[in-house]
């Protein structure tokens, strides 16, 4: 992106306004009605970032899927053995575009409200797209990873808990693949498209493409 379009720049080498995304978010205006853009330069940022409800009209842009990485400061091998939400989204009208969300169990917790995901990539094992949001996933690349011994993979777990709610997941033009480490054992492990946690609610239109299964 052109640097002139960003309000502030985050760079680990000190060439921007902030060295961490957390600092940039904290400094963003509250209850803004105009778009405020934070540009995060390439690098691996080992930090947890919480964007509160007062940080409205906020856009965060990186260099690419491979170059701007937010890790959450967690050990990757440890994450494989515990239930841990990678990304929780409780914002109405939130949009994720060309993001890669990488974890194991509960990778993306689409908690509530209306959300839109386009041309993103996600990896996981158990319930790795979960929550009670009304969410649309377009051109989404879904990669099932190798689970722990004795586990099965479950891609979605939409947790509708009230029949008066109008929530659900809609997957449009999505691909489902097996990761490189999962491929050798995929014939011995069950992978489910979804499971009912409370009330049935997810939808798929049109059917996704399964590659490598």
TrEMBL record:
Its EC number is 3.1.1.11. GO terms for molecular function: pectinesterase activity. It comes from the Eukaryota. InterPro entries: Pectin_lyas_fold (IPR012334), Pectin_lyase_fold/virulence (IPR011050), Pectinesterase_cat (IPR000070), Pectinesterase_Tyr_AS (IPR018040). It comes from Brassica oleracea var. oleracea. It holds the Pfam family Pectinesterase. It is found in: Secreted, Cell wall. Acts in the modification of cell walls via demethylesterification of cell wall pectin. Keywords: Aspartyl esterase, Cell wall, Cell wall biogenesis/degradation, Hydrolase, Secreted. Its main location: secreted. This is Pectinesterase.
């Amino acid at each position: 992106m052109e640097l002139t379009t960003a309000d502030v720049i985050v760079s680990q080498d000190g060439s921007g306004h902030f060295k961490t995304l957390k600092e940039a978010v904290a400094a963003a205006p509250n209850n803004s009605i105009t778009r405020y853009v934070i540009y995060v330069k390439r690098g691996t940022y080992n930090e947890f970032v919480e964007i509160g409800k007062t940080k409205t009209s906020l856009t965060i842009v990186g260099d690419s899927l491979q170059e701007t990485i937010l890790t959450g400061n967690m050990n990757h091998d440890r994450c494989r053995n515990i239930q841990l939400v990678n990304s929780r989204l409780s914002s109405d009208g939130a949009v994720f575009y060309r993001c890669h969300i990488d974890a194991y169990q509960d990778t993306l917790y689409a908690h509530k409200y209306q959300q839109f995901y386009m041309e993103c990539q996600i990896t996981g094992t158990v319930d790795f797209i979960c929550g009670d949001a009304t969410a649309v996933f377009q051109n989404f690349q879904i990669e099932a990873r190798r689970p722990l011994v004795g586990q099965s993979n479950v891609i979605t777990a939409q947790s509708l808990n009230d029949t008066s709610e109008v929530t659900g997941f809609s997957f449009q033009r999505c691909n489902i693949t097996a990761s490189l480490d999962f491929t050798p054992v995929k014939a011995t492990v069950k992978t489910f498209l979804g499971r009912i946690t409370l009330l049935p609610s997810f939808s798929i239109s049109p059917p996704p493409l399964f590659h490598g299964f």
